[in-house]
């Protein structure tokens, strides 16, 4: 005859069982097992995510400390131990990235040009004519996408809504058109 308690308890992985021991009995040996297993894996994940070595170690320590303190919130019916711990790490990584200040744009050095310079005006007119000719060689659907994106200054999502085409199609048309324009205008000097 099967014991009623074991019949109702689903089998857990070793890591989930260890986290349950931390949750229910504050078992330090089980926590050590979790730490030994997850610390190097979390550090590798964080390094791949762009954190530097020192801050990755700090985040791993913080995550594992949270595992110890928040083990009471763990529910094996909702997630395995690994998913729960990786979610804590991912959330911590997102918190850190949100706290970083956004990079400031580089200052542009504007050099004064003479607008009355005939050579400059002629060069600009020739470039505009070359661009017009290159645009005319594009298929109509690519021409329309380029005009909406760069002349009308519409976001890709709005172009998609207007045309009724999927967003990926709009992005592909714009990308292909830009590649063709780049190829056609490759001889222009920046």
UniProtKB/TrEMBL annotation:
Key word Ion transport present: no
GO BP of this protein: DNA-templated transcription initiation
Alphabetical list of InterPro entries matching this protein: RNA_pol_sigma-70-like, RNA_pol_sigma-70_dom, RNA_pol_sigma70_ECF_CS, RNA_pol_sigma70_r2, RNA_pol_sigma70_r4_t2, RNA_pol_sigma_r2, RNA_pol_sigma_r3/r4-like, WH-like_DNA-bd_sf
Molecular function GO labels: DNA binding; sigma factor activity
Alphabetized Pfam families for the sequence: Sigma70_r2 (PF04542), Sigma70_r4_2 (PF08281)
All copies of domain RNA polymerase sigma-70 region, residue ranges: 34-100
PROSITE patterns: SIGMA70_ECF (PS01063)
Family: Belongs to the sigma-70 factor family. ECF subfamily.
Annotated NCBIfam families: sigma70-ECF
Stated name of the protein: RNA polymerase sigma factor
Taxonomic source organism: Ketogulonicigenium vulgare (strain WSH-001)
């Amino acid at each position: 005859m099967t014991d009623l308690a074991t019949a109702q308890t689903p089998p857990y992985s070793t890591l989930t069982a260890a986290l349950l021991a931390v949750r229910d009995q504050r078992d330090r040996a089980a926590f050590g097992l979790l730490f030994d297993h997850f610390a190097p894996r979390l550090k590798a994940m964080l390094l791949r995510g762009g954190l530097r070595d020192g801050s990755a170690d700090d985040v791993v320590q913080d995550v594992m400390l949270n595992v110890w303190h928040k083990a009471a919130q763990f529910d094996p019916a909702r997630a395995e131990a690994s998913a729960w711990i990786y979610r804590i790490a991912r959330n911590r990584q997102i918190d850190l990235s949100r706290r970083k200040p956004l990079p400031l744009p580089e200052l542009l050095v504007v050099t004064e040009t003479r607008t009355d310079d005939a050579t400059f005006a002629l060069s600009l007119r020739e470039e505009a004519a070359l661009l017009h000719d290159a645009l005319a060689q594009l298929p109509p659907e690519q021409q329309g996408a380029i005009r909406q994106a760069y002349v009308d200054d519409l976001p890709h999502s709005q172009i998609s809504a207007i045309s009724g085409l999927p967003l990926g199609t709009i992005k592909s048309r714009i990308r292909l058109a830009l590649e063709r324009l780049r190829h056609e205008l490759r001889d222009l000097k920046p």
